[in-house]
Amino acid sequence: MRTLRILFLHELKSLAIAAPTYIASALFLALMGFLYWQALREATELPLDYTPVQGWFKWFPPALIVVVPLLTMRSFAEERRMGTLGALFSTPVHPVQVVYAKFAAIYVMYLVMCALALLFPCMAWWYLNDLYGDPRLLSLPSLLGGYSFVAVSGALYLAVGMLASSLTRSMLVAAMLTFCALFLVILFGWLLQQIPPGVDSWEARVQQYADYLHTYQHLGLFLRGIVDTRTIFLFGTGAMLALGLTSLTIQSKA
Amino acid sequence: MTHDSTDNAPAIEVENLCKRYGSMTAIEGVNLRVGRGEVVGFLGPNGAGKSTTMRIIAGLMAATSGIARINGIPVAWRPEAAKRHLGYMPENNPLPEDLRVTEYLRWRAKLKGVPWRKVTARVDAVMEACDLVRKTRRRLIGTLSKGFRQRVGIADAILGDPDVVILDEPTIGLDPHQILGIRRLIRELRGKMAVLISSHILPEIEQVCDRVIIINQGRIVASGTADSLRREFIPDSSISLEAGIGIEALNNALLPWEPRVRVADKGDAGEGYRHYVITLPEDSHLASGLLQRIWPVCAGRVRELHSLRPSLEDIFIAATRRSWEIVAADGTTPPNHPVNQGNR
Question: CA of A107, closest CA in chain B: separation in Å?
Answer without folding.
Answer: 21
